[in-house]
Design brief:
alpha+beta, eight-stranded antiparallel β-sheet, 8 strands
Length: 131
């Protein structure tokens, strides 16, 4: 009987934790911080710069110094991010952002993956993790 009660309690606790984690997406924000972005290419990690998030505003990515201006972003309930301004090299030289997906929990904390479409039609994925 006790093992059945502890099993039921475990399931209820798991559902509560899952519901709380999902609630973060419904707020439409990524946790504030500086996110270091890099891509794995030709056997090495390449630094693509840092994106700073503060509320619903982002700036960057920048490699050195500070970003000149901040822009708004939106995140839907599924964790998909829409950047409402330029995003450095991700949106220059014929590149475009195909999709950005946030992950708010995990061993490395909050992060997001940016899928960039290059002018030749190829796709490149980079990961941005909070430092």
């Amino acid at each position: 009987m006790i093992s059945r009660i502890s099993s039921i309690f475990s399931v209820v606790l798991l559902l509560a934790v899952t519901g709380a984690a999902r609630a973060d997406f419904t707020e439409g924000k990524i946790p504030d911080g500086i996110y270091h972005c890099e891509v794995y290419l030709l056997g090495a990690f390449l630094n693509l710069g840092d994106i700073t998030i503060k509320g619903n505003v982002y700036s960057g990515p920048v490699t050195f110094g500070a970003a000149p201006q901040g822009y708004n972003y939106q995140m839907n309930a599924n964790g998909e991010i829409s950047w409402l301004g330029p995003l450095g090299g991700y949106t220059s030289g014929g590149n475009s952002v195909s999709m950005t997906q946030a992950t708010l929990e995990g061993p490395d904390g909050p992060s997001f993956d940016i899928i960039m479409k290059q002018p030749d039609g190829a796709f490149t994925a980079s990961t941005c993790t909070r430092g």
